[in-house]
Structure formats: C-alpha cells, structure tokens
Please model this.
Amino acid sequence: MTLPHREPRFLTGAWQVARKDLLIEFRTRSAFLAASVFAVLAVVIFRFTWDPTGIPAFELAPGVLWVIFTFAGLLGLNRSFALEQQDRAFDGLLASQLSRESIFAGKVIANLVFVAAVQALALPAVALFFDLSVGSAWWAVMAIVLLASVGLSAVGTLFAAIASNTRMAELLLPMMTLPFFVPLVIPAAQASALIMRGQPIEDGLSWLKVLVAFDLVFVSACVVAFPFTIEE
Amino acid sequence: MAMVSSTTGRPVGSAPDAAASPLLGEHHGVDLLMSAAVIACVAAVVRALFFTPVDAMLGAVQKIFYLHVPAAVVGLYIACGLLAVSSIMYLWIKDDRIDRLAESSAEVGLVFMGIVLTTGPIWGRSSWGTWWAWEARLTSTLFLWLLVLAYLVLRGAVESQESRARLSAVMGSLAALLVPFIHLTVKLFRGMHPEPVVLAPEKPKLPIEMLTTFGMAMVAFLLLFFALLRMRYRWTTMRDARAALLSA
Model:
C-alpha cells in the first residue's frame, strides 16, 4: 500500500529550508563568526570615539546598537543566496515541490535566527562596554529588537535574492536595503532610547506602531514579490 | 505593394523578426518638443530674473522658488509617480515598453531631484540660516533620491534585459510602499524633537506677477521633463534593439 501523495505544507516546507540553511551555517560558522567579531569590534571602536562626560551612555548606545545590528545583519543576508549559487543549488530547491513562498519564508526564518543570534551577543556587549543598566525593562528592549528584526530579515532576504542575480551582489545589497531600513532603525533606536532613559514604554507607543505596521506591510509585500525575483 | 522604410530604404518586414530591426526607434530631424522646452525654459528664466519684482522680505534669493518648486513637482511627484506606477504595471503585464518608461522616468527624475536638493540648501542658507535641516520634506526627498540612485545602479548591474526589467520592477514597487513609511517616520522624529528653527512660514499669497512667472516656469519644466523623457525613452528603445540584434 502506498501513501497518497501530498504537497508539502507551507510551514513544513519553510521549516525544512530554514533548517537546511541553519545547519550549513552551524557546521561552517563562517558568517556567524564574521558577524559576531564585527559586532564586538564595532562596539569597542565606538567606545573610543565617545566622550562619556559630553554625552551620557544611554543617549549614544541605541545608535551604536542599531548601526551594529544593521551591518552585522547584512553580512548574514549576503550569504543567504550566495550559498545557493554554488553548483546551482538553487535550481534543485526550485525543482522541489516547495512553493516559492515557502522557500522565501524559510530563508527569512533562517536569516531571522542568524540576526537574533548576533543580537544576543551584541546586546550584552554594548550593555557591558557602555555600562548600561536597563533594569526591569529588558523585555521591552527585546520586543523592540525582535519587531525590527522581522522586518529587517524579510526585506533583507528579498533584496539578497535580487542582488544574487547581479554582477556585484555584496556592494549592491547595502545600497538597496539601507533606505528600506530607515523606517525600522529610526523607530527602534528611538524606542530603545526612551526605555534606556527610564521612560515608560507608553511614551514610545507610536514608534512601536510604526514597527508593527512596517512588519505587516513588508512581510506580506515581500512574500508576494519574491516569486518575481526568480527566473522561470 | 511593399512598404519601404524611410531610413534604410529596405522593405519593411524584410527582417525575419521585429527585434532584428536596429533602427526601430530612430528619429531624425529637429526634436520639436525639446526645442519648445528649451525656449520656454529660457523665457521663464529671463522673466524670473528681469521682469519679476524682488521679494520685499526674502530678497533676490526668493527667485530660487521659480526653479525649486517646479523641479520638485516634476521630479518628486510626476517622475517618481511614473516610476512607481510603471514598476507595478510591469510586474502585472510584463511589457518592455513599460520597463523603458520606468527607466527613463527614473533617470530624468533623478536630475530634477538633484536640482531640488541643490537649490533647496542655497535658499535655506539665506532664509533659515542653515544649509540643511532634518525636516520631514527634506529628509524624505534625500532618501527618495538615494532610492532612485540605487534603483539605477541595480539596473546597471543586471546583464539580461528580461531580468533587469523584472528585478528593477520589484524594487520599484517596494520603494512605492516604502516612501509613506519614510515620511511618517521622519515626521514622527521631528515631532518628538522640536527645534527652535522656524521652518517655512505660512505661504503668503503671491502677487499676480510672481504667480505668472511661477506658472511659466512650471509649464517650462513640464515641457522639459517630457522632452527629456521622450529622448531617453527613444534611446532605451534603440539600445534594447541593438542588444537583441547582437545576441541574436
């Protein structure tokens, strides 16, 4: 008796793609190592450009944090599709039964995990070197970071797919994505600055609304747009 | 009766396929639209400089207004609007002509936005006392300029005509979604950090002479935009025809 054939479900397929990418990253650790070394180096360098008597740490730290998150994220995003170029691995993925949308969702999940892992390292590093005490509001900072990372991963993954079709992917990706990160980085940095200053989270509610709106609009738009980046 | 091409003398349709005709979009003679646009621009400049009264409050620098505002209307609203609409339309109906329109409006729009971003600070220096203020409109314009620039760099980095059109249309469509977000973010940013700089005061009612000059400048810039757009469009048509011929 043979089992009836079934098309893989959306989330199952997405998880398979994400698992594959994360497994490759876990075994080679090349991008993660590069991104985390970059993050720590950047924190140290920023520390030496800063005069603690002039600007209090909680004014500078959110900016430093978001510059690091953005650029460390780009290091991982670049790899996301460059990986598939070798031996035309992407053709194999396209020939599988997974829908285009679930391939994209899988790539986004893998990139989100990557970005979150780098952030989990950079956040304590910034707190340590800048002597920040967030106190009981740490969960709010985490929520902001997560909200911004979702949008960053979705838009970044789509542009990584576009850039992988061009002659100068590594140079083009930051140029295309950074303007798109503006409505993520400004609200996220502003909202985290509010919390580090000790203000209640309600003061930053309008920033959080922008983040949620961006995530909703761009995650759906990128899922719709992704199939167009693939040559049929 | 065989029709004969006026430019090549060869019978039309003698080439095996339409794409193989390299002279598809070639036009000879004087570009009348461009001539009209240049004359209108010169006329508008002459009128703005010599036949329009100097503003009592702002002085001679107010005359930048006749260059700045029409360039902003044409570059930001018409060119970027065309780019957004044609990008979305391309993904829908996949017509090469729409892609060429998107490319041409991006290039011409970049020039007009460049005018906006250079004349603005010159005016701001004498009126606000600073070259640049992180005000919502200025910042949005700057980001839009950077986006269009990135769009054109992306176009330059893709070899095949079909993927160039497809990938840049994806970016153009997403950029259309992004612009309201940038504007909202920058506005909120300003709202939370008010600065003592008094930005653009309530627009005073313009006297009729100034309004006429402004109207002339607006018409001149519109003509110039469409003349340049048509020129670029024809050029892209010839370039794509040549590429098709070379790859055949």
